[in-house]
Design goal:
InterPro entries: N-reg_PII, N-reg_PII-like_a/b, N-reg_PII/ATP_PRibTrfase_C, N-reg_PII_CS, N-reg_PII_urydylation_site. This protein has 112 residues and is α+β, with helices and mostly antiparallel strands. The chain is built from 2 helices and 6 strands, in the order E-H-E-E-E-E-H-E. Helix content is 20%, strand content 36%. The longest helix is centred in the last third of the chain and has 12 residues.
Length: 112
């Protein structure tokens, strides 16, 4: 099993969710986060005053899938979330040693 952690722009969430559902992803966890990378924040003007925005709003997706499906999920997120502009996000893939469904006690692939 693989854990895929992706950070994407907030307005891309629904489009990414639909694309992942279409390829058979059955669940995901979504968190609103703030962060910065290459863009290192930016300045904005509000009511005539300029101020620095050091952290940019992002969405973090966490998805656990069978190892055989991981490349397809990464490719789908990459294609769907991409705008071609700075700040499109990152994707990380990690190994998952065990998964347990709390309600039934099912483990690993059955728990997904």
């Amino acid at each position: 099993m693989k854990l895929i952690i992706a950070t994407i722009k907030p307005f891309k969430l629904e489009e990414v969710r639909e694309a992942l559902t279409a390829i058979g992803v059955r669940g995901m966890m979504v968190t609103e986060i703030k962060g910065f990378g290459s863009q290192s924040g930016h300045t904005e003007i509000y009511r005539g005053a300029e101020y620095a925005v050091n952290f940019v709003p992002k969405i973090k997706l966490e998805i656990v899938v069978a190892a055989s499906m991981a490349d397809q999920v990464v490719e789908t997120i990459m294609k769907t979330a991409q705008t071609g502009k700075i700040g499109d996000g990152k994707i990380f893939v990690l190994d998952v040693l065990q998964a347990v469904r709390v309600r039934t006690g099912e483990i690993n692939a059955d728990a997904l």
